[in-house]
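## retry 2 of 3
previous attempt timed out at serialization; input unchanged, resubmitting
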Amino acid sequence: MAAEYPEFWLQLPNGGPRARGLQTDEFGTNGSRKFIVGPGQPVRARVVPSFRKSAAYRLREELVVQGRIRQSATRPDWLETTETITFNSSSEAASVLAGCALNGWRSWRSADERPLRDFMSEVWPGPNRSWLVRGSNVTGLDLVQRLWLPEGRVTLPASRLRQGVRQGTSKDELRTLVQEDYESTTTYSQKQQLAEELHAFLSRMKPGDTVCTISGGHLYKGEITGEAQQTESEDGRSNLRRPVEWQPTRFPYDDLPEELQQKLSIQHDVIDLSSVQALIEGLGRSDEELAEEAEAIARDPSGEIPALVARREPELPDPTEELASELLVHDTEWLREVRDLLADERQLVLYGPPGTGKTYLALKLAEFLGGGPEQVKLVQFHPSYAYEDFVEGFRPKEDPNTKEVAFRMNAGPLRELADLAGREGNRHIPHFLIIDEINRANLAKVFGELYFLLEYRNKSVQLPYSGDDFALPPNLYVIGTMNTADRSIALVDAAMRRRFAFVELSPRTEPTSGLLRRWLAREGKDAEPADLLDVLNSRIDDADFRIGPSYLMKKGVYREGGLERTWRTKILPLLEEHHYGEGIDIEKRYGLAALRESLG
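## retry succeeded, writing output
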């Protein structure tokens, strides 16, 4: 009876008055508990645009036509109820009074500001969550269109599960029941997954939670408004159900935020979507509507609205003249093009001969675009580098207490950075993974199934070691460096070239060709080293083996005898290796004396 509950109050948006209501134990037609609002309660006159598509709006209009809601005689610019109105659920009541979609289990509050959900004894504690339940292909039937939307329900097939299983059943008990009831019909892993899904549906979901489903290339969204029930149904296809108030608006799957698509691509029948709950709450609502709804549920005005925060896209700042000057790049437009490639592709490789500043440029650019070194991680590939080093795998570790060594799951740098970038509050901040010498490892072996994720960022995959569902966050960017003298870019497989944008850093083109000359001018030094380098590279036919300027951009080069020492110990050995077996006199062709003579 309603007397078992205290009075509940609803704060109306825009600093409006509070309305009063009562919770009942009487069930409506679809299993929701009815909610009562008495006469003289305030109703906001204006409604938000998206609310006009809802069933609650149509009910509100009917109540106005019937005279049960009319202009208030005591509150200018407000409406009020003229008699007692029994609503099908607390959410329907809150939405009609506020003129926008509200979750009644959160927005109706007692005098001491406790939400309605705290008073429902059968509901598990904790915040409301969001869920995906699949129903578009249950033994060949689209239950979403056939049953869920028309009748206001969500169901889960459990045809072999014994009768009498109650809401709130523990996971261990469900595992035992599934093991017994499905003993010879499913595999071990299928039983484990079924127990997880049954536990989520029966014991973790609760009224006030958001539920989503997919049908016909669209996402449908609703609110769970009642407890789980076990019933007999046609052919035993769906005998677990919950009442749901489905929103009339559907959302094209291809237009959904990328992070939401990643979660929806997980191949299970029931999926916890709470990590992207803010994105779901914002679907179909403007920033202004979200702000009004936040005010209606008495959210802390000093805090940010999660749905608005979740909408922030990661933005790469515009390169500045100061950055171009620091990097000695000839033109900020070149940096802007690299920034745009990263924004579009999210994976980029800087390639060129040794000494062209690839790693330095990658690090400095990533620190600028990410807002600091905290958002940048560097790894270096080598021939023995493996998937277990990069993503995750079992590695021997010593227990600090027992000093015993055992194999334990270890997250690699990619997994660590992806987890950091995907944390709530970090999702709009760009994070960068720098892979130095990316072509020195067996890329197919190192990347594994991540090759797929690099191309399809809106998908997720199941990792083979941990079994976790994994996706690359939208704010994770990858910059690789590739030394073309070590292995030609032509040897990189087509799969990688399709997934990365390639930017050349070559002594024959800017920004590398004039880099040394600009550095010498900034340091106030003679331009002879730049002239010598230009002559040297003009004598090297293979562009992949031309010498970059960074060898000559060190203070030691300009001490007495430093240029000759650097030429003899750094540059000439590279060219000897390049011409190995050709019988060429390296000193006579590339030595300082020969180059200076040609300049003279």
